Amino acid sequence: MKFRGAYTAMVTPLDRDGIVDEDGLRENVKFQIEKGIHGLVPVGTTGECATLSYEEHNRVTEITVDAAGGKVPVLAGTGSNSTWEAIMLTEHAKEVGADGALIVVPYYNKPTQAGMYEHYKKIAEEVDIPQVIYNIPSRTGVNMEPETVARLAEIENIAGIKEASNNMEQIMRIIDLTRGKDFSVISGEDSWTFTILGLGGVGVISVASNIVPDRIAKLVDTFMAGDPETSRRMHFELMPLFKAMFIETNPAPVKAAMDMMGMAAGNPRLPLVGISPEHKDKLRKVLVELGLVK
């Protein structure tokens, strides 16, 4: 399967007791689809995969797949710093009908390039479902190099990479090395989406689209339809929001924004906390300027 377009890195809404808000999650999925998003990514970084139990993790995937009802593809987060754990989560995603798996580069262990290659190769051999690598060195402590990506792109069910290294030279190298392959290079940072599309990328897995899915979809759609001027305009209009989404550690800012807009979100789980009053005021100002709150 070719993953392209605007995908939302879904938050996991929590109620006041810190329990997964299943009804709220279904409402958020409905909102995304009605607003024209191209795909959904539950239980990634924005979905707080690091602090969900296995049962919660799997349940969020199940609900997202069910609520999406086949209207848009679901790329479920299934990564781990344990290869066997990642296989288990990926198997579950396949069993419940996810269209693919987003698998983060192993964190904390600090594997070599050879270790990263074997990690993904093993998962691909064990679970026959399209898989997208997720490279985010700021979170994992290691970086997957372009040559490793190119080797993995030769494996049939490794379908692409979500690139969040913020290293444009590296991203250009990946796009160059994987040209002609059935392999998607997807932006992992909202602020880099327009640039990556211009270099040959095919979409974004977006945090901001939790609240403006229609605008992120338009940014991508217009570029892909041969209208870069409209896409560029959308990019600059949304840049203040892209910055505000990382005013503190993700997903605290986007959850605060969703709360202000009356959407299901709640606070993040410890050790993350809600954003400071000062940052909340700055975030609200951005939302007001974009017409999202009064």
Task: Provide structural commentary.
The chain is 46% helix and 12% strand. By secondary structure, the protein is an alpha/beta fold. The chain has a single domain, classed as Aldolase class I (TIM Barrel). The strands form 2 sheets. A 5-stranded parallel beta sheet has the order 3-4-5-6-7. Strand 3 (75-77), helix 3 and strand 4 form a beta-alpha-beta unit. It is globular and about 50 Å long. The N and C termini lie far apart (41 Å). The mean pLDDT is 97.
Brief description of this entry?
With 294 residues, the protein is an alpha/beta fold.
Outline the secondary-structure elements.
Elements: E1 5-9, H1 22-34, E2 39-41, H2 54-68, E3 75-77, H3 83-95, E4 100-104, H4 113-126, E5 131-135, H5 137-140, H6 146-152, E6 158-163, H7 168-177, E7 184-187, H8 193-199, E8 203-206, H9 213-224, H10 228-244, H11 252-260, H12 277-289
Parallel strand pairs: 1-2, 1-8, 3-4, 4-5, 5-6, 6-7
Helix pairs in contact: 1-2, 3-4, 4-6, 6-7, 8-9, 9-10, 11-12
The profile of the biggest β sheet is:
5 strands, parallel
Separation of the first and last Cα atoms: 41 Å
Tell me the number of strands. 8
**Secondary structure tally, helices:** 12
How many structural domains can be distinguished in the coordinates?
Answer: 1
CATH class: Alpha Beta
Helix share of residues?
40-55%
Question: Could you say which structural class the secondary elements and strand pairing correspond to?
Answer: alpha/beta
Morphology call: globular
Order of helices and strands: EHEHEHEHEHHEHEHEHHHH
Report the CATH architecture: Alpha-Beta Barrel
Strand order of the largest sheet: 3-4-5-6-7
Low-confidence stretches: none
State which percent range the strand residues make up.
5-15%
Instruction: Please state the CA-atom Rg, rounded to the nearest Å.
Output: 18 Å
Q: Determine the mean pLDDT.
A: 97
- Here the CATH topology equals TIM Barrel
| Name given to the CATH homologous superfamily | Aldolase class I
